Amino acid sequence: MTLIVKESSPLVSIVVISYNSTKYIVELLDSVNCQSYKNIELIISDDASKDDTLEKVNLWVDLNKKRFQRVSILESKKNLGICKNINRGVKAASGDWIKPIAGDDVLLNDCIAANLAYALDNSLEILFSKPDLIYENDIPDFYIKQLNRRYQESVSLFLLPAKKQFLHLLHTVFVCPPTLFISRMLLERMNYFDEDIKFSEDLPFYLKLTHNNIKLNLFNQETVKYRLHSKSAGHLNRGFASFDGVLYKEKKKLIMRYIDLKFMFEYPLHFIQISLDFFSKDLIVIFGNNRLVSIIFRSLMLFSPLFVIKQIKGIYSSFGFINFDRK
Q1: Which of 80, 226, 290, 322 is deepest in the core (most CB within 10 A)?
Q2: Over the stretch 268-279, which tens digit does the pLDDT of each residue have?
Q3: Which homologous superfamily does the CATH classification assign to the domain defined by 12-239?
Q4: pLDDT beyond 50 at 97
């Protein structure tokens, strides 16, 4: 079907990424259906769910497909992993703008309208909104406190220019993937998400963007409910679980893409910090995550210039000084 899209109301593709999402998928689809913005196509990319997710999706689509410009359900016979699954969904989209969303999250009613208006008004190709965090009962209080702290830290990331965002992301500053709103042209220019990095679809992509001097922007409004539970595919599992050597090797492979002689001479403090971090993680791989390794790591941090600078900045900010990292 060929669509004629008015410039005042560009086509937006909502790309739902699902895997064993039977418990939440209908709630997510209902939130898509309730969007105040009308010119929407719906792409659902399922990664070989073993439950009845697809049955629920097909039934829902039969009842609601007239609301959308186009609906496409993509099925897989084998599990591809999150990066390949999301790429399959966004490559099938024909909208000028892409709103990826997981099958267990929820869109607020004005999500598309608000994100699109902010992007167009500010001539942006990519933005992130504030998440409304939903914690299920199986999330320990410790994880909740850690995640809340990470979200607060991530806000300061958006105040920085792209190059400084890149440096911070090398040390894994958290950005909320479900709030992403992005132009299809930017996705195409960046060659989509990196399928050779298996642990994450978001951090490799954000590093690639900021390394190419493309700034990550904040739309300071809640537009997505981000659900966190024990089976979440996101940062909960990989952010606070016990040390995973395979995960670490994947992350190290990603970071080493950007560490060369030019980086070493241009950003010596970051090079030292990354080297110390890798050394400490390599010790864990070799000797295990024990008390001795922890003591060595804490001792190494005393020689980290970025760690010392961070402590100084903390003292400065406590006295109300301006954060001089925002320039």
Answers
A1: 226
A2: 888 888 888 888
A3: Spore Coat Polysaccharide Biosynthesis Protein SpsA; Chain A (3.90.550.10)
A4: yes
Backbone angles phi, psi at 62, to 5 degrees: -60, -35
Residue 149 has pLDDT above 80, yes or no: no
DSSP state of 125: S
Distance CA 280, CA 230 (A): 28
pLDDT at 215 over 90: yes
Distance of CA 87 to the CA centre of its chain: 14
Q: Encode 272-310: b = buried (16+ Cβ within 10 Å), e = exposed.
A: bbbebbbebbebbeeeeeeeebeeebeebeeebebeeee
Strands 12-18 and 40-46 turn out to be parallel
Please tell me the number of Cα atoms within 13 Å of 40 on its side-chain side.
Answer: 27
Q: Higher-confidence residue: 41 or 301?
A: 41
Q: 140, 240 in Cβ contact below 8 A?
A: no
Mean pLDDT, the chain, as a whole number? 83
Confidence of residue 212 (pLDDT cuts 50, 70, 90): very high
Q: Which of 235, 238, 226 is nearest to 102 (CA)?
A: 226
Bridge partners of residue 181, in order along the sequence: 127
User: Model's pTM, two decimal places?
Assistant: 0.83
Read off the pLDDT band of 313 (50, 70, 90).
Answer: low
CA dist., res. 124 & res. 281, Å (int) = 38
- Please answer whether residues 11 and 39 qualify as being in contact, where contact means their C-beta atoms are separated by less than 8 angstroms: yes
Annotate 138-192 with three-state secondary structure: CCCHHHHHHHHHHHHHHHHHCCCCHHHHHHHHHCCCCCCHHHEEEEHHHHHHCCC
Q: Within 13 A of 153's CA, how many CA atoms are on the CB side? A: 16
Q: What are phi and psi of 51, to 5 degrees?
A: -100, -160
**Model confidence at 241: pLDDT above 60:** no
Domain ranges of the chain: 12-239, 259-318
pLDDT at 315 over 60: no
